[in-house]
Specification:
Length: 304
């Protein structure tokens, strides 16, 4: 089963899924940029409608506490649009960790996340379906990030939820894997995020060879890395047989990313990237893995 903001659904109900997105977010406390505030609820409905018209059915919304999480809003959006929305427990990375959690150790992080998973978020009857996005800095794991990552891993072990990570510019993916494997967390409960930002193919292959999932989830952010390069790497990964470990998304976090503000919108993967894969001869069964089966397997609650 998969936990959404409106309750549990079967894996078969998930459908085409955007595996790493943000609908309602506020990063302005740290970024001091109003473009990083998404608070237009009616606008969110319209943006999701574009996603649905392009074939989208589900979305993993990874705005956690400290990033402006609003789970009641997510439930309203799901009810208004019919999109299955999976919300999260977790904290992001330094310096976005909430003030009340500064100085926590891994056990305190784990206890907090387990509490939200078992008792609901912020006093609601809305439960997280994933732990994340939990991150590390560029080529550095700060002490608080180490405790956070390990705490999230322990919560995943205790609850069967998958955890999904943030790697700044795609760095340290293998280090994250090693830390989580060190806890005994199974590979099918780990998603290492933003690996499409890493231009070092061997580093990404090292993560894939570990057997975990990777997030190919900043598609369209050509200011970081051209989509043509993302496409080239992905075709090679598919050729090597890793297509069942790859999750696609765009990770939209700004007003300027929305169609309403002349941005690409949440349907950009479906409308631009998938056609590019088809044009290069990727068969439909592999595209279905990338969009449907991989997310369904990745976000299903694991019972050991």
């Amino acid at each position: 089963m998969i936990q959404t903001v409106r309750g549990k659904i079967s894996k078969e109900e998930l459908g085409v899924c955007a595996a790493h997105e943000h609908l309602s977010i506020d990063l302005s406390r740290i970024k001091n940029d109003p473009d990083t505030i998404l608070d237009d609820e009616q606008g969110m409905v319209s943006e999701l409608d574009h996603f649905v018209r392009s074939g989208g059915r589900s979305m993993v919304e990874l705005t956690n506490d400290g990033m402006g999480r609003n789970v009641e809003r997510l439930r309203r959006l799901s009810e208004a649009t019919g999109v299955h929305i999976i919300t999260c427990t977790g904290f992001y990375k330094d310096p976005f960790i909430p003030e009340f959690a500064q100085g926590w150790g891994q056990e305190q992080f784990a206890e907090h996340f387990i509490s939200e998973i078992k008792e609901g978020i912020d006093g609601t009857d809305i439960y997280p379906g994933v732990i994340g996005e939990v991150g590390t800095s560029v080529n550095e794991i700060k002490p608080v990030e180490r405790e956070l990552l390990l705490g999230a891993g322990k919560a995943a072990l205790a609850t069967g939820l998958t955890m999904t990570t943030h790697t700044s510019l795609g760095t340290l993916g293998s280090k994250q894997v090693d830390m989580l494997f060190g806890l005994g967390l199974p590979k099918d409960q780990i998603i290492i995020g933003h690996q499409d930002l890493n231009a070092n193919k061997e580093e990404v292959l090292d993560v894939l060879r570990s057997g975990v999932y990777i997030g190919y989830d900043t598609i369209g952010k050509n200011n970081y890395r051209p989509d043509e390069d993302r496409l080239s790497f992905l075709l090679d990964f598919i050729e090597r047989g890793f297509h069942k470990q790859i999750l696609l998304s765009a990770d939209l976090t700004r007003k300027s990313h929305w169609k309403k503000h002349n941005g690409p919108g949440y349907d950009l993967v479906l409308n631009t990237f998938i056609p590019a894969l088809r044009k290069r001869g990727v068969p439909e069964e592999i595209i279905e893995d990338l969009l449907i089966h991989n997310p369904a397997n990745a976000f299903s609650i694991k019972e050991r």
